[in-house]
Amino acid sequence: MAVRGANIRRAVTSDHVVGWAFASPAVLLIVVFGLIPIVWSALLSFQKTNLLSPAHWVGLANYRALPKDPLFEQSMVHSAIYTVLFVPFSVAGGLLTAVALNRPLRGIRIYRTAVFVPVVVSTIATVIIFLWVFDPNFGLANWLLGKVGLGPFAFFTSSNGALYSIVAMTVWGWIGFNVIVYLAALQGIPRELVEAAEIDGAGALGIFRNVTLPLLGPVTLFLVVWSSINALQLFDEVYLATNGGPGTATYVPVFYLYKLAFQGGIAGYAAAIAYVLFAVILVLTIVQLMVGKRMVHYAP
Amino acid sequence: MSEIQTIELAERAAEGPAAEPKGGRFLFSSWHLVLIPIAVVMVIPLVWMVITSLQTLDQTRHYPPSLVPTSMQVRNYTDVLQQAPFARWFVNTLVVTLACVAGNLLFCSLAGYAFARIRFFGRELAFILILATLMVPFQVVIIPTFLIVRSLHLIDTLGALILPNLAGAFGIFMLRQFFRTLPVELEEAARIDGASRLGILFKIVLPLSGPALATLAVITFMWTWNDFLWPLITIYNPNNMTLQLGLATFQGAHQTNTNLLMAANVMSMLPVLLLFFVAQRYFVRGIATTGLKG
Amino acid sequence: MAEVRLEHVTKRFSEDVAALDDLTLEVADGEFLILVGPSGCGKTTALRLVAGLEKPTSGAIAIGGRIVNDVTPRDRDIAMVFQNYALYPHMTVHRNLAFGLKERRTPKPEIERRVREASAILGLDDLLGRRPAQLSGGQRQRVAMGRALVREPKAFLLDEPLSNLDAKLRVQMRAELKRIHQRLGITTIYVTHDQVEAMTLGDRIVVMSNGRVQQIGKPQEVYRRPQNLFVAGFIGSPPMNLLRGRCADGSIRLGDLDLPWSGPDAAEVAVGFRPEDLRPAGDGGPSLEFVVDVVEPLGNEVVVHGTTAGTAVESGAEEEAEIPLVAEGARAAITAVFAPADEPAPGDHMRLGIVPDRVHLFDLHTREAIGR
Predict the structure, then answer these.
(1) Are A55 and A48 a contacting pair, CB within 8 Å?
(2) Calpha distance B227→B149 (Å, rounded)
(3) Which of B39, B228, B277 is nearest residue A114 as measured by Cβ atoms?
(4) Which of A272, A285, C334, C342 is the one with CA 20 to 30 A from C208?
């Protein structure tokens, strides 16, 4: 009898049981709200549904329709332009700002806080601010630009300029993130390496080019990948600042699929777009990592 | 060394201590010239927002705009509270955010610890699958997640916002990595002393994980508070909206009442800004760790 | 001419603590000078001041006859080997060696020549294409030295370069360093906390403690005639035995030991004997009673720990919280080194013979050596 009790107790407290007991709430949540939707979404992309009546299979029809869809093509082009502008500006800008902030200056904490705060502000709040700053008639931007002889610009209301205005706004909102990461990395560079380079005869620029920049390689790679992934998933800003417009000038894939699924009742096609976008992100990330790994040498 | 050089050396040695500028180094470094414009560009939109939030409608329609506050119409703020269920939005968001933070801290600790220290059947596979979900962008799963939440009859309730976000793969990954850096000997000593796994987790591991937990809490807070797309899809009733969603609808309704809009914006930002200033260290650390481990 | 001089150099990092206190030092051209002392004694600070990585709070520093207080490190024409080597991780060994020369716009053929020469001297020829991560500790150390060599500087500054190597490698590299110095004759300042390194490598050694110079001299001199209690306790392994005694009526009195003394009377002195100067007492001659406690046979010698009647004196060079081996009642722990043939057994009662002119005397108040 006692042995049976002990056996049961041992079984109940065995690592397998305990392990699953600990992990199951989180694992369950992720399976239900993560893994199952991933698979279901793939299935949806082969179906036609408006989310209300039952779906029916259409095979590859959704995917075949994509290349012939001008709005999809435009979305991808806009996304590409946005990413190609957003990533270099925010990453390089972040690096230069971090270098400037990596000093024992008086009041450096104030400067750092000033640069970090926009990251904390939500996308919606940022859009509301910039709708006002970029207001063509009463906005701060046109006034200040006018003082140096530029403008006035139509910003979000211009079909040529809307996308670039979104670039400017999101760089403002995200550069602080890159600064924080770069600052941490800069402070991780061993002081002795810089001192050795100083003694070897390198000037400030030489140190930056030959010691700082190469050692920041892994971090730069991470930020480029991270920023690209986020850039390709642009939604909030487009929804609130331009609603895809003027016209369709700022249509981007996630915005398009949102409209299709939740306003147009064309969910299967939207799921196909989601997966194509996923594939693009995946391929781009792999390419970036492969190129990056060859160019980056991790410190021992 | 020549005699002259010896004399020079002695003279230089006799000079008093080198003058170090008081009040911190580099008082007037030229780096300030670089940093001030950057800081100004970052801060000016926020400053202008606050100024506008205190102006009358006519003053907002004034061109050129003034960077100096021309009035202190605090009434704007109370007007906003009357014209929209702002307080309700705030409470909703607070409830959802706190629930998600608590959920993540609890469930991700349990799971993270299990993945880090307990050998159980299927552990490797489960972890890889969880990591895989981190790779997949949100837009891929929103439609099915919506359907699942709908079948649970949670649409247009706060439950729709809380349930899917009670535990995230990011938290599990982060805590697992962190727990693995703690010396395993501490836990082994506790096991020999007779503690249960649960006891070890709550009495030994978690108390030593303060910074990691604080970082996860702060990141989850910020992410949940600022989330927009998911509430947009699942919430319709104005009374159930979160702050971001409410703000967006407010903007749609009050596009031309810029002063009210700015007041609403300021109010919506205050909690996160406050948290940021109080816990800046953890914000920064959280972001830095994603960058350096990524 | 590449001599280095520090004149009344003081370095404070805060109001009340001076890392270096009025240091005056001269390194002759081509000399191998060692700064040795426990951690925190200021030796690394002194080195960094010469390198220009820190500025002195007051005082002057000159290299090759030129005052360099306001000269940046890169213009001082010195080369430094760091304790952790500080190799550029993303560059090959070849690029690591060539980096400094490239930054100084040295013409390419000259760079190649110097790199090849340094590589030959240090045996790096096979490693030139590798990265630091692919090298062993000893190899990295040699690359760090090579990087300094190619610069053909006025002075070498080495900051505990051997402390990260395992014991065997350390012995090997010590010989290498000496060989290189004999061949190239460049002025060298070397910092270490290991007094064996100091004794074997230096032309002269500078014993430091708490930011001050305790003694400067040739290794043998410092060993034979330590000028104060700190140096007496720091140099020599196992450390010198120090016991309370007094000088009266022409003799040094210590327990039942009586030694002739021609100096003045002194009520409180510390009497020092090095463990290697103590032998099992032969016939006659002054001796100290001794009870054996622990015996450590080392192969070529035997270290014997035991006690004698008396009180021990602290030199100030002890590691923190040293637990004295046995201290029962009025007995002091002392150590002796015997030849293997004389190995005693624990518990043996015996007498230790002392050679009178190998006895060191120190005034207990001033802690200075009392002359003979």
Answers:
(1) yes
(2) 17
(3) B39
(4) C334
Chains that touch A (3 or more CB pairs under 8 A): B, C
Mutate to test the interface with B, among C27, C58, C68, C69 (most CBs of B within 10 A): C58
What are C304-347's pLDDT values in tens digits? Answer: 999 888 888 888 887 765 555 555 567 888 899 999 998 999 99
Please give the Cα distance from C288 to C307 (Å, whole number): 10
Cα(B178)–Cα(A87) distance, integer angstroms: 30
Closest CA to C57 of C66, C65, C46: C46
Local structure of A236: helix, strand or coil = helix
Q: How many interchain CB pairs under 8 A, B with C?
A: 39
Q: Contact C7/B12, CB-based, under 8 Å? A: yes
Which residues, including other chains, have CB under 8 Å from residue B173's CB and lie 6 or more apart?
Answer: B112, B130, B131, B134
Q: What average pLDDT does this structure show over B65-94? A: 85
Q: Can you tell me the distance from the alpha carbon of B250 to that of A163, in angstroms, rounded to the nearest whole number?
A: 24
Q: What is the pLDDT at residue B28? A: 66
Kindly list the distances between the CA atom of residue A241 and the CA atoms of A131, A166, A227, B125, B251, in Å, as whole numbers in the listed order.
Answer: 7, 8, 20, 43, 10
Given a contact cutoff of 8 angstroms between Cβ atoms, the answer to whether B2 and C49 are in contact is no
CA–CA gap between residue B105 and residue B206 (Å, rounded): 10
Give the domains, in start order, of chain B with CATH numbers.
85-292 (1.10.3720.10)
Given this model, what pLDDT does residue A258 score? 93
Confidence band of B166 (pLDDT split at 50, 70, 90): very high
Burial class (CB in 10 A: 0-12, 13-18, 19+), C42: buried
Distance from CA of B15 to the nearest CA of A (A): 27
C-alpha distance from C121 to closest chain A C-alpha (Å) = 20
- CA–CA separation, C202 and B284 (whole Å): 49
What is the reported pLDDT for C322? 59
* Residue B8 contacts C where some CB pair is shorter than 8 Å: yes
Locate the chain A residue with the closest alpha carbon to B231: A236
**Residues A153, A136: Cα–Cα separation, whole Å:** 6
Question: Are the CB atoms for A286 and A229 separated by under 8 Å?
Answer: no
Query: Which residues lie closer than 8 Å to B247 by C-beta, 6 or more apart?
Result: A124, A125, A128, B89, B264, B265, B268
Q: Which chain B residue lies closest to A102 (C-alpha atoms)?
A: B31
CATH (one of 3.90.480.10, 1.10.3720.10, 3.40.50.720, 3.40.50.150) for A65-295 = 1.10.3720.10
8 Å CB contact of A29 and B167: yes
Q: Which residue of A has its CA nearest to B167?
A: A26
Residue of C nearest to A202 (CA): C103
**Under 8 Å CB-to-CB from B100, ≥6 apart: which residues?**
B162, B165, B166, B220, B224
Please, what is the angle between helix B243-253 and helix A123-133, to 10°?
30
- Residue that the structure tokens 């480029």 belong to: A224
> Where do we find the tokens 């350096």?
B292
Does B16 sit within 8 Å of C65, measured CB to CB? no
List the single range of B104-108, B288-292, C196-200, C250-254 with lowest mean pLDDT: B288-292
The nearest CA of chain A is from the CA of C206 a distance in Å of 25
Query: If DSSP codes are grouped into helix, strand and coil, which group holds residue C21?
Result: strand
Per-residue b or e along B195-208, where b marks 16 or more CB atoms closer than 10 Å to that residue's CB: bebeebbeebbbee
B137 and A177 in contact by Cβ < 8 A?
Answer: no
Distance from CA of B15 to the nearest CA of C (A): 7
Q: What are phi and psi of B76, to 5 degrees?
A: -50, -40
Structure tokens at A295: 């160019």
Query: What's the CA gap between A62 and A275, in Å, rounded?
Result: 11
ipTM of the assembly?
0.85
Taking the domains of chain A in order of start, what are their residue ranges? 2-44, 65-295
